[in-house]
């Protein structure tokens, strides 16, 4: 029987330069004496979309050095969210964490994130919007504006403080309940929060300092932002369809009543006018 209780899933596309520091820092943090989670109960799964940049060789070398890390290479699919879903499906642990490869999610927070999940806390959320947390000054202004705008648009859907975060964890039993996950785009945490109907008191928020990328490039593009808007429309429908249908019917009834009232008042005026002549 496997002794793996925790799985760290890392979506990665052309991240070879980041994989060694990422994996060694994760296991380094887990090996500290005060780590709440033992390193031997943790696996790291890199889900790579055929980067062909040496990532496979790096992970295999790390494995030979004794790190419990493996790589899944997808050749027919692409995308951050679908890579995370694939990793979660293959994870052995009951407590699953998602983090970026680019070290913007500091590996030193991994033990606390993993330990924060429990039967009552089904979701762990690494948040950049907690009191006292500072975002690295190197994070460009336009990214801050996009992030804040995206967060505001999601406010009616969840009360989580940072639903845009790519640093989050979910218990397997809850993940398995999710239906119709949106595998397009970047916002898998928001999708899970809404579709698994995670109540606020089941979310363990872990404040963390968001770093800057020093190696490789961000894959966030205009297309990703458009996909987010599509995803929002879908989630609003998912969450509020009953209210939306009710309001549409109400407006329709009001419209018909007003139209009838207007027509009959015109009709009344017409017949009065006719009777005058
Ligand atoms: N497998 C796979 N991985 C991908 C793909 N696109 C991106 N990734 C991986 O997903 C992680 C995040 O991608 P970035 O391109 O570095 O994203 P970002 O711009 O830094 O955005 C991050 O921060 C945002 C918060 O501002 C988050 O909202 C977003 O989800 C992400 O975590 C990285 O490890 C990257 O390699 C893809 O198509 N396939």
> Strand order of the main beta sheet, please?
3-2-1-4-6-5-7
Specify the number of helices. 8
Rg from Cα:
25 Å
Fourth-level CATH superfamily: Spore Coat Polysaccharide Biosynthesis Protein SpsA, Chain A
The CATH topology comes to Spore Coat Polysaccharide Biosynthesis Protein SpsA, Chain A
- State the end-to-end distance: 98 Å
What's the helix-strand series? EHEHEHEHEHEHHEH
CATH level 1 class label: Alpha Beta
| Mean pLDDT value | 91
Fraction of residues in helix: 40-55%
* Percent of residues in beta strands: 5-15%
Largest sheet: 7 strands, mixed
- Total beta strand runs: 7
Helix/strand/pairing category = alpha/beta
Bound molecules: guanosine-5'-diphosphate-alpha-D-mannose
CATH architecture: Alpha-Beta Complex
Domain module count: 1
Low-pLDDT parts are: none
- Based on Cα principal axes, name the global outline: elongated
